[in-house]
Design brief:
six-stranded mixed sheet; 4-hydroxybutyryl-coa dehydratase, domain 1; 8 helices; about 350 residues; globular; alpha+beta; about 40% helix
Length: about 350
């Protein structure tokens, strides 16, 4: 299948029926909600740039899994050039959108999961790596959006997952059978869960043998039975409900909590199920890749902040005031240093 257009992406969301609660109310057509539609617009912009002759130079790549062009957001990093292209892509998108575009978490997750399931297969003869390849190939063929679930609610931070008074403080396996696994728990701060087609879960920390039921990685449709998306935080984030005409009025970001109420996951979508020694490295890989991503996206947004501050100074006739220019220079120094770190990390990888 060819790369989706923004219109095709929006149309594809209409086929999904996620269970969603926003500010205490159940929402049926979630992509039309004023707090979600701007987030959908951010993702749609990535599809627009993938079909743009200049944008596709960074947003589109080739795959070993399917013929033709695929989105870089659902591809594996295979070289330093891929890492460098990712940083450049994310900076371009941040400068274009002025915020989050919801897709880098899924990209970083499939790469972090891939390393450890490959290692797990070598040690135990498990079939996880091929399952992940099949899953990513499906995403590429259909040009879908993937988000990642990493952060658990955690409960008592002094206790390990298996020691919690409430066992559901960390997402865990509650049943196994010949068809698959059943999971229960939640992931919080889930960027893009309500504008994605699929999610992929990564353990949130290292595990020990007693925690093996919490060492789980899998993929799931965002409207799978038993999955609930709950958004209810942030008074200032609700300003979009007020038809605010200032700030970023076209794009937005919201991060629901995703609850798993005895969700069934077929084995072909399970990438880790009890091999606890790989949980810690999996999430550390994710953290490293995601910080690397932020060297692009956060610096791109920083460029907009710097430009806005410089414009405000100019509007007030203060463009030649030294202490203001010193602050602007300091902002530039910070953003360029962070960006340079991600570029260097790409080249030295």
């Amino acid at each position: 299948m060819a790369l989706k257009t923004p219109a095709q992406y929006r149309k594809s969301l209409e086929k999904l029926h996620p269970v969603a609660y926003i500010l205490g109310e159940k929402v049926e057509h979630v992509w039309e909600h004023p707090l979600i539609k701007h987030m959908v617009s951010s993702v749609a912009k990535t599809y627009e740039l993938e079909n743009d002759p200049e944008g596709k130079k960074l947003l589109v790549t080739k795959s070993d899994l399917v013929p033709g062009e695929v989105s870089r957001f659902i591809s594996f990093y295979k070289s330093p050039d891929d890492l460098l292209a990712k940083v450049h892509m994310l900076k371009l998108l941040a400068q274009t959108i002025g915020g989050c575009y919801m897709r880098c978490t899924g990209m970083d997750a499939i790469n972090s999961v891939g390393i450890e399931v490959f290692n797990c297969d070598k040690k135990y003869g498990t079939p996880y790596w091929q399952r992940l390849l099949d899953f990513v190939g499906m995403l590429q063929k259909e040009d879908l959006v993937l988000f990642s679930g990493v952060t658990d609610v955690k409960g008592d931070r002094a206790l390990r997952p298996s020691q919690q008074k409430d066992p559901d403080m960390y997402l865990h396996i509650v049943d196994r059978n010949k068809e698959g696994i059943v999971v229960r728990g939640a992931k919080i701060h889930q960027t893009g869960s309500l504008c994605a087609h699929w999610g992929i879960v990564v353990p949130t920390r290292e595990m020990r043998e007693a925690d093996k039921d919490y060492a789980v990685s899998f993929a799931f449709p965002t409207d799978a039975k038993g999955v609930l998306h709950v958004y209810g935080r942030g008074t200032l984030e609700a300003r979009a409900l007020e038809d605010c005409d200032l700030g970023n009025i076209e794009f937005g970001k919201f991060a629901p909590m995703v609850i798993f109420e005895d969700v069934f996951v077929p084995w072909e979508r399970v990438f880790l199920a009890g091999e606890y020694e790989y949980a810690g490295e999996m999430v550390r890989n994710f953290g490293n890749y995601h910080r690397h991503s932020h060297g692009g996206c956060k610096c791109g947004v920083g460029d907009i902040y710097i430009g806005a501050a410089a414009a405000a100074a100019e509007y007030n006739g203060l463009e030649n005031i030294s202490h203001i220019n010193n602050k602007l220079a300091e902002m530039l120094k910070v953003t360029e240093a962070i960006y340079g770190c991600s570029v260097a990390a790409s080249v030295e990888a």
